Amino acid sequence: MAYPTGTTSEASPPATVGLLRFATAGSVDDGKSTLIGRLLHDAKALFDDQVEAVAATSARRGHHAFDLALVTDGLRAEREQGITIDVAYRYAATPRREFVIADTPGHHQYTRNMVTGVSTVDVVLLLVDARQGVTEQTRRHAIVAATLGVPRLVVAVNKMDLVEWSEDRYDEIVAELAQVTDPFSFVEVSAIPLSALLGDNVVEPSPQLAWYAGPTLLGYLETVPVEPPADTSTGARVVVQWIIRPRVGEADDRRRYAGTLAAGHLAAGDQVVVLPGGRTTTVVAVEVGGHEVDVVETGAAVSVVLAEDIDVGRGDVLSVASDPATVTSELEATVCWFADRPLRPGDRLTVLHGSKATRALVSGLVDRLDVATLQREAGPAQVELNDLATVRLRLAQPVVVDRYAECRATGSFLLVDDASNATVGAGMVTGT
Fold first, then answer.
1. I want to staple 425 with a disulfide (CB 3.0 to 4.6 A). Which of 21, 92, 415, 416 is the partner?
2. Whole-angstrom distance between the N-terminal and C-terminal Cα of the chain?
3. Which pLDDT tens digit goes with each residue over 29-76?
4. Within 13 Å and on the Cβ side, how many CA atoms surround 112?
């Protein structure tokens, strides 16, 4: 995988290029929260009351300077410990673009929170401390981003001031990162040297980094293209969340099935099959916000009117008949394990898939990924906390799925412990 330098930050992008969702990732103390604070502060994307609140907290803690990390570290425990625990979401806007930012934890213990933050973004901003280089957690976060189907990775090589702005050190880290990212199918991996604490190359180019010809971090984020969702690789999928029944006396007595169009596009006249039941019918009308529309695209909240009054329940899937989803009671999936207790063959869990819950048996552990060597251990005896493993599940009831690479909504699920009701894993379907 090449690490393109891109264009300089002086290039003039369009006045607006749409919304970008991105998440931070990296090891503890790599400077994720400080970088986001610096980015928002120097881009003038903070309100006066936010600046005043952070300044007051900084002074109360005895800091002589404005503590940029406090912009996103909102939990009291985070501020006391100086680490990010939960995922902190922030909205920001510049004249060129709007952003939704997920600042995720770097500590090994909170990898499950990082998975949550990365699951819906367009770009992952992966920080690396220039002194430490690539760590095990750096590798883990890059692998999680690839597994979750994030198309673009931008690597912020932070704390360049502490390695005397060394181009050689930057090149060493880029080469080491390439060994981690090359095996995966990222659309693009880019690297940017910077200092979050001092602000060099975050919003404005740094004279200390004259050897670097690429964009600043903000320049990259304002111009990076947003990939169309992978969910367009399948036909229409509407996961039914609500059945809207007509009221007595209403002129329009048609029943509507409401949900989100998770993939593809849908229009009146399309043939759909109701899964898992298998009954085929025709779409009479598609409504958005109570108004009929000609066609809807992925992501829209829709109400669908069908030609026949057939049995459709919450959690069922309306799937285009020419490219239906799969109904199965056997799953093979990549699972990120969140629990302290290990996962073993024979364990019984609950699978939460869409709006449905069903009991499941772990019928086999296919392999476990060693994030240090990027090698897969075949047939492990168990899966430990924060491991990524390929797992086979046998379900008590059939579910409607696609491969995660084709449709995230129907290709993802959660694993819940029956005794504690705690979420113990997240899964991405790879086969049936």
1. 415
2. 30
3. 778 778 888 888 777 766 566 666 656 655 565 555 555 666 655 433
4. 17
